[in-house]
Amino acid sequence: QVQLVESGGGLVQPGGSLSLSCVASGRALRDYSVNWFRQAPGKEREFVAAVSWGGASTYYTDSVKGRFTISGDNAENPVYLQMNSLQPEDTGVYYCAIGVHWGKGTLVTVSS
To answer: I want to staple 45 with a disulfide (CB 3.0 to 4.6 A). Which of 39, 78, 98, 104 is the partner?
Structure first.
């Protein structure tokens, strides 16, 4: 059984920063990319960022490019999402996803 646990969410003012982490446990998750999604209130879940197995490639949705950085090289170690210059539109529940497995999410609120 695979478990994903996200942490690091919280309340931050616009322009602030947060660092989220995703820790996976359970069976081996070799060759899977690690993905971050988010869901804002009243909106559908959307892709935010991903890192390929081994860390060679990273991917970002356009709205976070230059502000968010995903780091980590595989699902067997923590994967981080560094979020800088946060804006109110970044508010939402952030989920880590690996393969078909999802965490329960961590809430990020950007508000003054």
So the answer is: 39
